[in-house]
Specification:
There is one protein chain. The protein is mainly β. It is 0% helix and 52% strand. Strand 5 (68-75) and strand 6 (80-87) form a beta hairpin.
Length: 144
């Protein structure tokens, strides 16, 4: 029987479980989807996932006080990418950096827990009622 981990982070900004999101890369236009299973416990962030490059593991740290997060995304049998970001209640966003063979590549990212709407998309806060059409016989179109 699985028992809950008593060390899992109680702060609602860092729920353990499924996360999704994307990274950007100037070399390849668009948002590139990522899906992950993450665990947050006692300041440690661990997990695994996959994206267009391949499967990867996550090993890093997070801070509840300021929401700062840093981790390494290590592709299985391939390279590793450093991530640095912040969680302000709308997922974790920031920048990634890859240094390989003397070259440096950078980009952005945004990830969020399953069940949260994509925080990068506009949200309708209020909706106005469409006014009823006014039908009046005494109104004559101009120029007739």
């Amino acid at each position: 029987m699985n028992t809950p981990n008593p060390n899992l982070e109680p702060d609602t900004r860092f729920p353990s479980g499924k996360w999704g999101g994307f990274f950007t890369d100037r070399r390849i236009p668009g948002k590139h989807a990522m899906e992950m299973i993450l665990s947050f416990a006692s300041g440690k962030m661990t997990g695994s996932g996959r994206d267009r490059v391949g499967e990867f593991t996550i090993d890093g740290e997070y801070q509840v006080v300021d929401g700062k997060c840093e981790w390494v995304k290590r592709y299985i049998g391939q390279h590793a990418v450093g991530y640095h970001g912040f969680n302000e209640g709308k997922g974790i966003w920031g920048a990634w950096k890859l240094t390989d063979l003397g070259l440096t590549f950078t980009g952005g990212f945004h990830i969020w827990p399953e069940g949260m709407a994509d925080p990068t998309q506009p949200v309708l806060d209020e909706e106005a009622e469409i006014p009823a059409e006014i039908e009046r016989e005494d109104l004559v179109p101009v120029g007739v």
